[in-house]
Each structure stands twice: as structure tokens, then as C-alpha cells.
Amino acid sequence: MFNRKQFCLWVLLALGSFTASADEGMWLPMLLKQLNEADMQKRGMRLTAEDIYSINKSSLKDAIVQFGGGCTGEIISNQGLLLTNHHCGYGQIQSHSSVENDYLTNGFWAMTRAEEKPNPGLTATFIVRMEDVTKQILGDVPANLPEAEREKQVQANIKKVQAATTAGTHYDAIIRPFFYGKEYYMYVTETFKDIRMVGAPPESIGKFGGDTDNWMWPRHTGDFSLFRIYAGPDNKPAEYSPNNKPYTPKHHLPISLSGINPGDFTMVFGFPGRTTEYLPSQAVREIMEISDPAKVKIRTMKLGLLDQDMKADPKVRIQYAAKYASVSNAHKKWIGEMRGLKKLDAITKKQEQERKFAVWVAQETGRKTEYGQVLPQFEQNYAQLAKGPTLARDYYMEAVLGVELLNYAQAFATLSNNIQKADPAAMDAAAFQKEVDRLTKAATGFFKNYNLATDKKLFANLLQLYVKDLDAKYVPTILQTVTKDYKGNWDAYANFVYGASNLTSQEKVQDLLKLPMGKLQAKLLADPAVNLINAFSSIYRTSVLPTYTALNDQNTLLNRTYLQGLREMQKDRKFYPDANSTLRVSFGQVDTYKPADGVTYDYYTTLEGIMEKEDPTIPDYKVPAKLKELYLKKDYGPYGVNGKMPVAFIASNHTTGGNSGSPVINSRGELIGTNFDRNWEGTMSDIMYDPDRVRNISLDARYFLFIVDKFAGAGHLVKEMTLVNNGPQQPAPSDVTVKTETKVKKDKKKTKIKEKVN
């Protein structure tokens, strides 16, 4: 038993062990005033929370967009010019490319507005305002309701609030759970649909270092691309029209030429995708020892097969460039994540946290009732998941659906199943035709970037791996034919499936979809690809998904309760919610780091590093002749510093996927860089942040300007931007409180800051 003195001492120690580092956190913009403004100003920020997020006046939030649903972009001119990463715009660059016009290899620059290229389906979404809607969503939801029933009622309430909020407007409303459904916040959004490609450097700049350098520091990648938002005559969202005008934003970011120095304040403003910072030790073990290793194994095989075909055929290289980059990005991230968690001894640290939580729970009877079963139930649930459901789910998602033919066949299997369920004589012909029209239209996009021979290799190898690594109960009986009829020859089985299927070419699909319902159904019932995906999906739906879903629904409730207990236990701690693709702010500082014993990395890189890495025999390290010429002449214009051209820098901001393309903003609200990656040693920050090793990697704004202006000769784009040079950031005060008042003149080229020091 603890005596009072011992207990007080333990509480102090426990609270200290749970305190987040100064740079950790992805914070809600609407709560910056009460939670973060003072801390940010102590770190050197010269803005107020109202300058960052406001619904009463233009603010930084009005220059930030969610780009395409998976990245972030920022507005950098009063004519709707949008800056994001090269890898965020990669799909659009690839879609406009061909062997004859290879924009991936050669780059693209629109020298007039007429040359800017439309991108059907691409969107840019602004946040109009945020609102805490927890009471509206949870107010009538009974306590202790089973999780599935609770979720149904929550979703019904969400629809009601969304409908009431957007009625009579062109806005949308997104409502997301925070703290595992303990709180709900609404984001009212405005989405623009006419987004045109303006510029992109060649891959030798935009992807310099390629997969070799991905997730690594030092980095020398010019990872940017330029787009423009177009609007209707009323400056509101409109479908593509040649008559649309460049969007006039409420705010655009001025770009600083002052550069960066160690200790400078940095703020990243964007849409981080997903983090799970409050997982229990059992969940971290599952990630480290089951899920990540499985996914890495599957993607290692897939990347090797894609690489062979892409190197052998220029057409395949273009077709699969974006796909390869997507597969590779997560693959390398998971490897770094496993290494980082191991080096951080994450499981042990989580277990220590849980031991302290258990001691706290044991102090009071009420806590035992509320929280006593949380940790034991975690242990039981994750033990059940480890017996097979987690691995089976990962192999279904990565190996089965990693085969394009099987992934594509899902829509046709659904159509077939719907026809089979209905009475053909009474079926709605209009609904049937609508689905046929949709599939016919989608076929063009799918087969443009599809190579049958490549996919056939993936089929044979990935399915063989699936059968080899999983328990037999997860393997469809239809695959017994491989052993029986094909003597275990997976290539021969692949030849049969791809030869007999009607889903392997655009011509076959279009002919298939011209058939009347009855004949179409007969063809689909006989199609080996449809039958195979049906067999896999049946096992997944009956033997994997129910158990996996039920256990994870329980874990969601347990996480909600566990986190509630931690927040109750640590009342003075500022908790930030996990990332969920909603607008967030993170802040930190420009800083070096030590990745290993005896090694320290500097905080910036330069063009000299590109020349040091140059190797014409390695695709990742080819350097364009024009860039070498500018380097040799030291022709850097106003963007270089002391005869050198800065390229990238690192800081301690807490970022994740979705932050790609996010602006890195200095203490005065000026753009100093564009976030594009994290260091490999810090990829575990999605699960556990380590201030000593976590660094976000950003493109220096001056290198972006240099490439646009001096390399591409697209100075007309630079002219529409607002460039400022207000000198170095002032050092962060240590012992004083700083209040600031910022006024931006109409000139937009000068920012005067008045300080009042109390």
C-alpha cells in the first residue's frame, strides 16, 4: 500500500513520464488560442491564434487546401496558384504523359493560361470553419450502447447535423470522431473542381534520389508541382469550363527569401492522414511483429516484379510510375517504422505506461469499476487477432487486391451478384444500364495504365505467396485446381485465367457490356477472374471480417475508455487527437539530429550535394544538363546564399502522410518551405513521437523559386507571387512573454511587426 507521501511522489513522476515533448502534437486550429498560442509565441511565433485560424477575417487557413483528398496544398498568389509536392501531383503528371510527350521525364511548364491542363476528378478543398458538435452527435446516444448500435445512431445524427448545416449553401460538412469517438468536430468545406496543372520539374529534379533516398536525410529532392484553382464568374466552385477564371483567394502566402537558421520557429499547416499515438502495447506489438512484416514481404515481391517490367519497356514505365511510387512509399515507411519502434523500445515504454495506469486505477473503487477491465480485455482481444484474422486481412488487401485483375473484377462480381439476387424480369433496367455505362466509362481509365503481362506475373507470384503463408482455412477451394490440374505451376494457371477472362482488355470489356442482361450474367458466371475474386471475398467476409471487425469494435471502445482514463489521470496535460485527415497545426523548430552513435546530420542541404550524388548510370541520380550549367555558373539569382543554392531542410514538426505538400511557415506567417517527407529514423512518429529523432523534411522555398525561374524559365509565375525579405527570424524569447500585433500592408511586400514585452 502507498502512504500519502509516497503516492504524491508517484503521481509527480508518472505525470512527468506522460508529458509530451514541446514539438509533439497535431493541434486543432480552432483551439489554438486556449491550448497553444502561448507556447507557440514562447517558441518565437510573432502571430496570434486569430492570424492562423479565424472565421471573422482572412487568416492563414484560407490559403490551405486539401489537395486531391490525400495531400495538402497552399495558395501562393492572388490568382489561385497552388503549390504542392511533385509526388502529390504525380498521378496528374503521369496521366498527361505519353511516350511522345513524356512530362514525367522532361517536366512541364505552362507558359500561358491556355496551356494549363485540366484534371478531371481532381479537387481542392478549403475549410470555411470548424465547430464542436459533440453534444449534437452524442446527446441522445445512451451510455453503454453496443458499439455497432452506437455507431448507427451516431451516423444518423451526423447526417442530420450535416443536412442542417449545408442546406441552401454550396458547402459540404465533414464530421469526424476525435479521441476514439469521445468528441466530434465538424469541418464546413468549400470544394473546387476545376484544377489545372501549371508546372512540374522533370523527375530528375522532382524525384531526385528516387526510392533510394525516400524517407532519408540528407535529401536533395525538388519535390514540388504547381496547379491553379479555377472558379466560376462568381468566384465560387464550378465544373470545368474554358470560361472559368483563376480563383481569387481570401489569403495567399507570401514567400520568404530570408531563409532559415537553427532554432527558427516552424509551423506546418495541413491535413495529416492517420496516427495512433494512444495505442496499448499489444497493438504496437501486432504492428511490429505481424502486420508490418507481412505487408513489407508482399510489397517487396511486388516492387521487384514491377521494377523488372518498367526497366524493360518505356510504355510500362509510364503506365506504372505512379503505382510503383505508391507501393514503394508505404513499403519503405513500414520498414523504417519497425526499426524506429524497436530502437525506441516502444513496447516496453507502452507497458510501463500501462503499469502506472493500473496503479492509478487501483487507488479508487470507482476507477476499478470504470477502467479495471480495459487492460486485461486488450490482452485478450489482441491475442485473438494474432491467431489469424490480422494476417489474413493484410494478405487479402495486399496480395489478393494487389493483383489488378482481381481488384478490377470486384465491380463485375458485384454486378453479377446483384443480377443473381433479383428477378431479371422485374429488375430495374435503368439501374442496370446505369451501372453498365459506369463500367464502360471506367474501362478507359483502367486500361490506359494496365499491362496484362505485368499483372499476370503479379497474379502468379502473389497468390502463390498467399497460399504458402496463410492457414488453409483462408485459402479458396477453387485454388486446389492449381495442384490438381496444373501440377503446382502457377504461371500455367495464370495463363488460363488471363486467357479465359473477359476482363483483360478494354475491347473485351466493352463487348461484354454491350450484351443484354441475361447473356452478360452468363458470361460473368463463367469468368474465372470473377469466380476467383468471389471465392476470396466469400472467405474474407465469412472467416476474416466478422472476427476482425468485432474485435476492433471492442478495441475502439476500450481505446476510448483508456484514453478517457489517461486524460482524467493527467488533468494538466494537453492532449491532441490522433490525425484523421482533418486540418491541423504542428509547430517545432529547425534542428539537427543524431541518427546513430557518432553521427550528426546538419539541418540543410544544397545543390552541391546534388552534384556530389550525381551518377548518370543510376536513374535516381541523373542531373539535368541545364541544372549543371546553372551550378557551374553559380547562376542562382536572388535565391542563392553566399554562392550556394539551398535545397532542403529539416525541423522537429510532428507530421505524417497527408502532410505532403503542407506549407512550412515561419514566425511571421511567411512560406519558407513545403513539407514532403520524414526521416527514416522518425517514421514511428505515427505511433510514438521521439523528439531526438523525429524530423520532417521540407523543400526550401528558395530552391522551388530557383527551379521555376532560372531552370524552367517560367519567371511569369514568380512574378504573380508575393516575395518578401524581412531578414532572419528573431530568436525565441526564453524568460519573457511576447505579445504581437501584425499588420500586413496592401503592398504585401513588407510586414511590420510591433512587439510589446511585458
Task: Describe the protein.
The protein has 28 helices and 24 strands. It has 758 residues and is α+β, with helices and mostly antiparallel strands. The protein has 3 domains: 29-123 and 193-276 and 576-731, Thrombin, subunit H; 128-192, no CATH class; 281-564, no CATH class. Strands 1, 2, 3, 4, 5, 6, 7, 8, 9, 10 and 11 form an 11-stranded antiparallel β-sheet that branches. Strand 19 (663-665) and strand 20 form a beta hairpin. Helix 11 packs parallel to helix 16. It is globular and about 75 Å long. Mean pLDDT is 92; it is low at 1-20 and 733-758.
Let me know the number of strands.
24
- Report the helical percentage: 40-55%
Oligomeric organization of the protein chains: single chain
Residue fraction in strands: 15-25%
Structural class: alpha+beta
Rg value: 27 Å
CATH level 3 topology of the largest domain: Thrombin, subunit H
Number of domains: 3
| Amino-to-carboxy terminus distance | 48 Å
By DSSP (H or I, 4+ residues per run), the number of helices equals 28
The major pleated sheet works out as: 11 strands, antiparallel
Shape: globular
- Low-confidence region ranges: 1-20, 733-758
CATH architectural arrangement of the largest domain: Beta Barrel
